[in-house]
Amino acid sequence: MSRRLSVTEAGDVLATGLVVALPTDTVYGLAAYWEDSRAVSTIFDLKQRPSDVALPVLVASPDQILETGAAWPEEADRLAKIFWPGALTIATPAPEELARRVGARSTVGWRQPANRATLDLLARSGPLAVTSANRHGEAPARSAEEVLEIFAGTSLAGVLDGGRCGGQVSTVIELVGAEWRVRRVGGVPPELIEEILGPPLDETPAR
């Protein structure tokens, strides 16, 4: 049965290969160790989400990204220094073996959330594969109560209760060499990114 967890309890539960829900600055998310393929698969099952839709990875700092062996270009670092912690997911090239762990092919989307409890958890646990806490195609949970209601009777092990989350979903961008493209418009306006990196590749992003 799902229950409310402390930061320490959430870390202990994740270490056993189970999935927990946690708060972010945008919405609640379902989290698992990103290197645990079985736990990541459980996230897809809980969401009833196609396994070819990649999961982003939350980190406590860019240092955790470097420790995985993934690329962290200078352009990504410039953006992180301005917009992290916050509602910007930055997809960078990653070795195929790393990308496959979260259902991706050649890139991994990284984000440092602006939520103290979850940052404390990430500092203890290391990077976590996280996606919004909802059934695929439905509105994401914005409180621990909504998480417990949506996933009642499932294998979700518990929720780290951080109160109500009221933010927008994150903006998602992908770095392509020295260029970039918008994958989703969210909490960080693309115009602010353009001021730093120049115009994006000409594509129509999801909203």
Corresponding CATH superfamily:
DHBP synthase
Radius of gyration: 16 Å
- SSE pattern, N- to C-terminal: EHEEHEHHEHEHEHEEEH
Highest-level CATH class: Alpha Beta
Q: How is the CATH topology named? A: DHBP synthase
**Domain tally:** 1
Strand content: 15-25%
Describe the structure using short key phrases.
207 residues; alpha/beta; DHBP synthase; 10-stranded mixed sheet; 32% helix; 21% strand
Model description:
The protein has helices spanning 7-15, 37-47, 62-68, 74-83, 96-100, 116-125, 144-150, 190-197; strands at residues 4-5, 20-22, 29-33, 57-58, 88-93, 107-111, 128-132, 158-160, 171-176, 179-184. It has 207 residues and is α/β, with parallel strands linked by helices. The chain has one domain (4-76, 94-166): DHBP synthase (Alpha-Beta Complex), CATH 3.90.870. Strands 1-8-2-3-7-4-6-5-9-10 form a ten-stranded mixed sheet, with helices on both faces. It is globular.
Give the topology, please.
Layout: E1 4-5, H1 7-15, E2 20-22, E3 29-33, H2 37-47, E4 57-58, H3 62-68, H4 74-83, E5 88-93, H5 96-100, E6 107-111, H6 116-125, E7 128-132, H7 144-150, E8 158-160, E9 171-176, E10 179-184, H8 190-197
Parallel strand pairs: 1-8, 2-8, 4-6, 5-9
Antiparallel strand pairs: 2-3, 3-7, 4-7, 5-6, 9-10
Helix pairs in contact: 1-6
Task: Give me a quick take on this structure.
With 207 residues, the chain is α/β, with parallel strands linked by helices. It has eight helices and ten strands. The chain has a single domain, classed as Alpha-Beta Complex (DHBP synthase), CATH 3.90.870.
